[in-house]
User: What shape does this take?
Amino acid sequence: MNERVIPWQPTVIAGPKQALLVTPETAEMMIVKAKRPLIVVGPLINDNPAQVLVSKIAEKWNIPIVSTGDAFKSLTEAGVPSKSYGLVEIVNLLKDPEWKGVSGEGNHDLVLFIGVIYYMGSQGLSTLKHFAPHVKTLTLCKFFHSNADASFPNMKDEEWLKYLEMLAKVD
Amino acid sequence: MENKSKAKELKDDFWKSKKLLVTTGKIADDIQGDSSESKGPTLKPSVTDLREWDMKLLKRYTPFYAPFCDMCCLCTYGKCDLTGGKKGACGIDIEAQQARIVLLACCIGSAAHGGHARHLLEYLIAEKGEDFPIDMGTNIDIEAPIMRVVIGKKPRNLGDLKEALDYLEEQMVHLLSACHTGQEGKSIDFESKALHAGLMDDLGKEIGDLAQIAALSMPKGEDAPLVELGLGTINQEKPVILCIGHNVAPGASIIDYLEDHGLDDDVEVCGICCAAIDITRYKPGAKVIGPLSKQLKFIRSGVADVVVVDEQCVRTDVLEEARKNKAAVIATTDKICLGLPDLTGVNTDKIVKKLVNDEIEGALILDPDKVGEVSTRVARQIAEERKSLKKLPDLQEIQEMAKECTECGWCVRVCPNNQPMMEAVTGAAEGDFSKFIELYKYDVCYTCGRCEQECEVNLPLISMLTKVGEHYVKDEKFNIRAGRGPVQDVEIRRVGAPIVLGDIPGVIAFVGCSNYPEGGEDVAKMAEEFLERNYIVVTSGCGAMSVGEYRDGDGKTLYEKYSGDFDAKGLVNVGSCVSNAHIPGACIKIANIFAKKPLEGNFEEIADYILNRVGACGVAWGAYSQKAAAIATGVNRWGIPVVVGPHGTKYRRLFLGRADKPENWKINDLRTGEVVQGEPAPEHLLYAAENREEATVMIAKLCIRQTDTPKGRQIKLNHYLDLHKKYFGILPEDVYKFVRNEKDIPITYKKEVINILEEVGWEPRALPQEPSLMKFREEKASDKGDSK
Assistant: This one.
């Protein structure tokens, strides 16, 4: 099996439904197609070059950012505005189709995750996979997330940052 | 003893009666066993008797499911794929299946404590007799708050505990049976049953701890001594006996044997996990190696000559691991037999001979007294020969091993926390052991051993870590305050009011296991943060040990720095896993002693009081076991919120509130008879945080209660705002939800908070005088009328 699509922590495999492996191009198509995308940023990319790239991705498509854990402080210091929620809180809100979303305009139809603790993120993605058919999930981590709808593969830092740069690049 | 007789007719000057049933004995028992308080409606509640209360909780704190597995594989119809709204062959859906697994976990956890209590009680009754009194001393009248509420009786002797245990066991059979295919079908009812399993867990723990406190003269809520903690406390020149698990009986018998034979100074007795805590409660001279996370490290170190295992949380490969360095293993309970020959009935000399001569790998000995003698004699006889096995290998040897690493990276991928084991190994290959040391300290690597299982060149990674760690930090010594058991009634009289009114900002209990995302230091830092802020901090089990393994800037452990009083700035180690019962126990006592709520059969009123008024919060940062699931679920039913670490999401279910929905927080004011707008306090009942920073802020928030006085609310909000600012850089946006009127605003943050209030168009609101989830009296009366 291609090592790039074995879940980073291999035992998070939950069943027959696996994420679609995506390239930056496919990820871009998903974002373009979405009406109300959202980016969820966790603390694993605090003070990481990926943080700047995520802010560029958000800026490029005007996507609001939710920060989890203590990522809010690090993002704020980097000049990136976000709204702070616990990971389980934001997932709980996302699974409610009636929730109005972080901008109050309606729930989000695509959520991009990056920087959340892997196994906890996997659990949150599982919640959305099962209980939020109205939300598509896409993970931008350097780890393959089998519980997402779509995921980047397992990568080393250098390739991962290139993926993010491609996604952030303004045409 | 109950005697019944029927009189066809009874006439005298005072009364007339026909078909009179006279019961004697039972009434006398009840009077003897009761206080004068009237009994509530739920004595010995059945599986469904508290369902109405559960539904109230579950309506506000909706179960949040995070499936760990998409399928059900419990019956031969399956596996069934439950994705995409599909139901299994039996009709179960993914929500109900998750809740079913939660119930199963809570049943397993509760059964572990109940089984432990049964073992202990039968042993102690055999040793001391059924009439052995439960005397908790002059400072404790409510010796068994959980049992008083649930069973409705005051236990006066060991024999009295049997009735509660019989009831518990009956309930457990019903609960476990509900997990069978084709039984319960709705997630919400699985959850109600899980809450019942949690309550049975509370009861089992209380029975177990009460029995051992009374019969083994453990501390009864008084200040307990500091005891030694850490690998450096062990004198390796002496024979070493290691106890692992939770049941104190074998460890106590070892200590007794040593004392009886004048060998106390000749043999080291130490423990890992709760067995360690309980043997030091029995005799402070015993030593605590540390939490569960030390298990494989310490066995691999070869220091222990004899390893005695009892029950719960023992590595299932303990025999294989211990045999690697020729330690003898003695299994002591029916829960863990390890395939060893049962030598309980065999002559002690013969067992010792077989073990010393290595004729057998170990022995199953189900008689604690015999364990005491055999383990001591074996340790003394094999220690000399094993001395070479305790020596540390040269670091050069480890460096050579490290050079074999292929840098495949799988050790990191299979690590539960993706800790950088590969980096540690590649560093060691270059003679740099710093990464190994980082993993070793505070048990950042908790030595589960999954990395070794995966290593393609079979490097003994845990042994390498152990040996590197020992070279650098083997002499580290810490301390822990021995478990003191219950909170005394006199303490509750002193702190009941300040807790309920908010002057003491909260009671925070760090409990549970050592499945920490970043090591045990996080637990200690959280404890320190709240101690400095005047909270009461309670510890138990592995959490208590992790707190003890940390030194502050002055080089003191937190147990040295803070008193063991149940008061502001007190650091109270209640004891082992079973001692966790004293945490809801203290909350129940507040409801009874401070608010005069009757106990017997009065679960709902007590839990409602705790939920709305007692600012307590549990923290199970490293929760991993089914017992921890039962513990958290148990205290949740009493209305106590719990924060778990990120691994806690793998329990599959949390209880989350929705602060954005004001309608969810409407509350009955029983004083005025009006439904009023309450506040999201506590906001969640079971919450998983991603890291320490998030957890710390959430814990402070979860201590807010509806009945805080303005002064109390100011204090609590001040800490919440302070911590939020510290870890998030700004004040929390949701502060307006907890400001009822301007008197609630902390002075330090007045200007900033007022700005936030103005931004959101905040309006002051009235404080409910008697906030409750319970029905108004008229509604209850009407319900009773309907049922007639």
